[in-house]
Amino acid sequence: MSSATIAAIRFGYGLSAGQPAPGDAGALSAALAAPDAMAARFPVTGMAGVFPLIREYNQARRASRQDEPGGEDRFQAARRNLRLTMLEGLRAQLMRAVLAPDGMRERLHAFWSDHFTVRAKGVRFIAAPSAFAEDAIRPHITGSFPAMLRAAVTHPAMLAYLDQNRSIGPDSPAGQRQGAGLNENLAREVLELHTLGVDGGYAQGDVTQFAELLTGLTFDVQEGFLFRPRWAEPGAETVLGTRYGGAERARLDEVFAALDDIALHPATARHLARKLAVHFVSDRPDPDLVATLAAAYTAGGGALMPVYEALLAHPAAWVLPFAKARQPWDFMVASLRALGATEAALAGLGYPELRKGIRQPLAHMGQPYQAPPGPDGWPEEAEAWITPPALAERIGWAMALAGEYSAALPDPRAFVETALGGTASETLLGAVRAAESREAAVALVLASAEFNRR
Amino acid sequence: MPSAPLSRRHFLRGATLAGCSAAAWPLMSHVTLAAAPGDHRLVVIILRGAMDGLDALRPVGDPDFATLRAASLTGDAPALPLDGFFALHPDMGGLMPLWQKGELAFAHAVATPYRDRRSHFDGQDILEAGTGMDLAPDQVRGGWLNRMIQSVPGMTSETAYAVGRSGLKVIAGDAPVTQWSPDTRVELDDQTQRLLERIYEDDPLFHAAGNEAFDLLARADAGMMDDGDAAGAAALAEFAAARLNEEARIAAFSISGWDTHRNQKGVLGRRLRGLSAALLALRDGLGDAWGQTTVLAMTEFGRTARENGTNGTDHGTGSALIMAGGALRGGRVYGAWPGLAAADLYQERDLLPTADVRAYAAWAMRGLYGLERTLLEASVFPGLDMGTDPGILL
């Protein structure tokens, strides 16, 4: 099997009927180093565009509650606009992933968005997860992790999701006046999930001290992100043995200094290296691969391109068979790529089609859109995804998609090659020949174990 | 290559399993069932997210409780007196008849051996795996129910996907229900199914999931489940009860959403109503068999003794075990109470565990299935010291 095929399946969203495979490791790196063409071509609304919709929602809600004339219609329209913005974000990300020549950037977009999981709390914030990915993740995918960490931890979607916008230093002026206090949620998850990892050697005292250091981070719907020194717990905090802050007036720079140090901690390097290796290569990754990625991270001072280059250069990253299960979103994107879905077709998907054709089946396959079960994101193990009800939904969706294309389906024998690039088993080739119809044969390929692995 | 546009008309057909959102929560809304000899039933409910035991079962007789827990956290509704020292969260009022009949019990200040890191994910692994801290969570294989099943002749297990008919609205989410058209569902014909069976044979994972997947596709007009609200929790319990009335004797499922960092009084109240509804659905669904039933509802750890700054609580250590069923010696709260004075708290922050929650599960298994203590302490819960029999069963 060619390295281009492995590259497309393992590091991208699969082979495409519409464009050639990206090629070997060097071609993947070069594509990552090039400008982000897909983001420019299919824009997604960031938080600066979402806040006005939230403000309108708040005002319209008030108007509706106070029985102002037209208030209820205005409220309904405001809700609808937020939901449509979420669906537009879904469609744009779908188009990037299906139409990208270099699928690895889109896979990394999904990986880092999952690493920094945020969920919408209520309809007000329903467009915030896409905005978060666009503002805090996308610009840093090929940049530096410390910069991504700063952006993620200070993004309103994260502050709201992990309650940081309500955490107030108990001895701060605001805390004294309101009798308010700490909420450890974000502090703990930054250490446990985003940086050091649960085995990263921090103690409860570090969590509490870090939570005190983070007080002051908040946002409002007028200004966006805010640092409020009057919310910050006075005095210095010691996190992992280093003292931060202590100046008379708390400064955001102190938070950033701690985040930068934690980002470059050896435990963070190991944690990120292992997560990347698990996500891209194997649920049980080669220890040398993990060590190599961690070393590249540390040597590069948190720069991410050297880590990706180390991943692509390591022999363990090219070993067969494909041991991972494609997650539901990957499976849908890969199917649409294999069938050569065009830009016009995807752009023509209306909101009901996106709901019924993408969002709802995603949920039935076990991956409700932008709603993982907790801040640790989606599970990695193949066993978590290939359950009976989820597999049933994959089979049904594959059959439905083949039905969509019934007027213009490819020759199934050619389609096997398009979709799997020579990785199909003799059994699958035989089944495709024995299928009753082109539709059935194409659905068999999409539902096959081979196509659902990467 | 040909590439017909996706048509607006047909793309709706993607939604195959008419709202079977069991799949939406692959880790949460399935029910694990096992058959066993005899008539005793055991139901294990995992409360994911760390239930605040101090709020569910309030030690109102402890002199420090009132200082730690103000109305900003607990709400204004009065707790329901139980034994003079403990009182029940007002949203569990539906369970008072069980308490009065001796079919509801608690063990307070319990925990698994998991300490200090307070990670949900590790805590749940330890709870479900039932091992001590000597193994890393990812090295623990198989849960304790599983190990019991392997230890008892005649026990066999399966994982069932609860498929009910309630609450289609929840899965439809923001999609208007009027657009739903079950008659556009895709039929899996025999030949295609046969070919799929053949191609899954070479991959053990797909082979294992395939047969039940075909079965689900065949009866894909099912409704859906949501384990997050009271109706969902009750539906899961109803499903479990129906199977326990057949050949199943052991059932396990989970209810999520106990991580009350903010606005605890609203969030915890909803969860406790859901749990209460589930316990009542088990009682009603089991009928006469309720007399031979033991239900254990346990969580990965407790929450801080003090309220945090956002009307909630953060991750802690000791919590409460909730027990129900006609097989219990109920109407009482088991365990040794450690006290809530600052010096009595674990690390001056959390309720101090005075017993291992696994010991209660072990004594229940010993009483229900006659398992040897050595087997329980060595194989089912490796490293557990069961201590003296608390006598939770009649």
UniProtKB/TrEMBL annotation, chain A:
Database matches in Pfam families: DUF1800
Protein name: DUF1800 domain-containing protein
Organism domain of life: Bacteria
From TrEMBL, chain B:
Superkingdom, taxonomy of origin: Bacteria
Pfam family name, one: DUF1501
InterPro entries xref list: DUF1501 (IPR010869), TAT_signal (IPR006311), TAT_signal_bac_arc (IPR019546)
PROSITE patterns in alphabetical order: TAT
NCBIfam families, alphabetized: TAT_signal_seq
Protein name: DUF1501 domain-containing protein
Organism: Sinisalibacter aestuarii
